Amino acid sequence: MDKNTIWAIVLSTLVIIGAYLLMPKFMGNNIVQEDSQSVTVIDENAGTESNTSNNSVLVSDSPSIFGDADLALSAEEEEAPLSEEKITINTGCAEIILTTKGGDIISYKLVNHLDMDTNDGIQISDSINEMNRTCALAFGTAGNTIINEYFSYEKIDDYTIFFKRNFKTKDTFGNEKSFMLGKKYTFMPNEYMFKLEVMIHSNDGKGLDFNGVAYTIRTSPQIGPHFNAKQNRYENRQFIAYNGKKAKRTILSNGQFKKYDKDLLWGGIGGKYFIELVIPTDASIWNASYYSSQIEQNDYANAQALFERKAFAGTDVMDTYYMYFGPRNEKDLKIYNMPENNNWHLSGHRLTEGLQSSGWLSWLETILKWGLETLHKIIKNWGVCIIIITFILRVLMMPLSIKQSKSTQKMQELQPKLQAVQSKYANDKQKLQIETQKIYQEAGYNPASGCLPMVFQFIILIAMYNLFNNYFEFRGAMFIPKWIPDLSSGDSVVSFNFNIPFLGNQLRLLPIIYTLTQIFSTKLTQATTPGGGGGQNEMTMKFMTYGMPIMFFFLFYNAPSGLLLYWLTSNVLMVIQQVIINKRMSKNKPSKPVENRPQKTLPPKGKKK
Q1: CB of 474 within 8 A of CB of 488?
Q2: Apex 329 CA angle, 370 and 281, nearest 5
Q3: Which position among 323, 353, 493, 510 has the lowest Cβ density within 10 Å, counted as fewest Cβ atoms?
Q4: Distance CA 57, CA 169 (A)
Q5: Residue 137 belongs to what H/E stretch?
Q6: Residue 430: exposed, middle, or buried by beta-carbon count in 10 A (0-12, 13-18, 19+)?
Q7: Which of 152-166, 175-189, 355-369 has the least mean pLDDT?
Q8: Using CB atoms within 10 A of its CB, is residue 458 exposed (0-12), middle (13-18) or buried (19+)?
């Protein structure tokens, strides 16, 4: 290996290290805290205080008589000392655990979707702690602490539970008012969607107002499965906001607490394969929305959406939210687009807008997905389907590859003339352009003809990347036992008891094979690429041959094996294709003219030399 090659490898490695070290500094640490004032919540039963950040005082109320019998607390409930109780509900899709502390969800486990790390169901209510729970309420703005008081509850049936508690407030002028807060959860068998009703009854009819906000409702602190953001760069968390026309997706970086200041009909948090959506029946009640990714615990940033409810005047209010906690795939989301397809009879919310999107290439991704799913009806192995559809695409793109190679060969033939013109008119740019164009016209060559096939192949590459990186069906899909048991995660041949910088603790074979085939493919392609010149041009060629594949090795090391399998198959087929094209091009390549050599003159017969 010569000096230039070594320099190319060293420089590419430095670029990778710099990206890993500097990216967090530029991508994160944008903390925006909302102004909030201190509020004290006093639990008279326990004699404790907790800060909820506002400008009023909240105190547990004594029994009150409410007009609505369902909302009123009985004397027995008020007199009995409250403590934490946990209630479990199983819908067949999820096992949910609720707590009387705040009337919140502390576990939401999807029983039909396995977490490979825990060998248990996926935990949608991840990273739960004392100060942050799923569907928790905070009085006032999004920056305030959640309600931590104990609620009494009534289990209406196997799928319905109602939490309730009385509170009393004092504003900054010392005016006292009391109200009752209720939270009613309604689940359904075999449904990822459930309903949450927030009920508030004001004794004095003055409503609830903390700086223009009544309360804030939130999603889970984090969505499972757990992932290491520093190593798994193919997984992220997104804040999703739908405004009635299209959904906006904002990728969360660490240390954020930001206001989303645009209108939305529903919103939530999405991971690669799972999603939490909050859909109010009346979005006009919302004051503002926020997304948070501040460090919660164990250096694991939360990923959470928070929605403020506007302050209200009057006696009673009941806000209804439909909550979808489940797979982020089209099959489970599209049933809520038509009322006859779901048990809640919901329609018009277009929850499929919450799916991952390729933007303007979505149509192409849909076609590729259809082809993949059609193959899977015949061949029940997604890995084999990936290989076959990659082969089909390569065959379809073969004419474009041949055209590109012909264009490259034509460019090679024109190089001597182009270099002569460049040398002759080095100081006259206008004349150089005219003469260069004349050479192209005489040869019938269009420089753009070699670019168009590359553009088309690049578009296919982007669509395939989005499909294979996010396709839900690859999750848990086995290709080769003990090597590639899950196409949605990296392959593994050996696990170490220590972490290798930038790579993790797994020895993966697919990235190694991919890198070797990439180097070989680049060498074959360069065999038909116009050469010439040393120095900077040679350095660039060395970097393309060795530096780029090494960069990709680090970037793709923890990529989903389904995505790497596509790239690897594409590389192998490209190598075979390039060998065929090179042989074909060499046959059609014009032979070099035979040089005129002086013939040896023989002396006349009878004469000595």
Answers
A1: yes
A2: 130
A3: 493
A4: 5
A5: strand 137-139
A6: exposed
A7: 355-369
A8: exposed
